[in-house]
UniProtKB/TrEMBL annotation:
It comes from Popillia japonica (Japanese beetle). Keywords: DNA damage, DNA repair, DNA-binding. The keyword DNA damage applies. This is Centromere protein S. One of its GO terms (biological process) is resolution of meiotic recombination intermediates.
Length: 111
């Protein structure tokens, strides 16, 4: 998906969400404010994507894992608790993988 299509989709979703919230809370949103929120969401998602890519490269992987997402959200306590609740076993699976890699050893006998 191109940046232009992604940006457009995010802006459309932001407008729809603002309309829904406007009806529910009986308040109005300035169109410029909604556009700014849409642009902020787009920029933040680009940043998240870059961070997730960096975490996965640092771990010498080509796949983003739930632990990468948890690391991304480490400064948001409530979101971190939510993610731990939604995906509690991710850490155990990664730890088991690391242990499997460390077990390999070469033994040489000098008899």
């Amino acid at each position: 998906m191109t940046d232009k299509k992604l940006r457009s989709g995010i802006h459309l979703d932001t407008k729809q969400i603002s309309k829904d919230v406007s009806k529910e809370l009986e308040i109005d949103f300035d169109e410029a404010a909604v556009e700014l929120v849409g642009e902020m969401v787009f920029k933040k998602l680009l940043l998240y994507g870059s961070d997730l890519e960096a975490f996965c490269k640092h771990a010498r992987r080509s796949t983003v894992t739930p632990d990468d997402v948890k690391l991304l959200c480490r400064n948001n306590a409530s979101l971190k608790v939510f993610l731990e609740h939604e995906c509690p076993t991710a850490r155990n699976e990664v730890t088991n993988l690391k242990n499997k890699r460390k077990v390999t050893a070469i033994v040489i006998n000098d008899d």
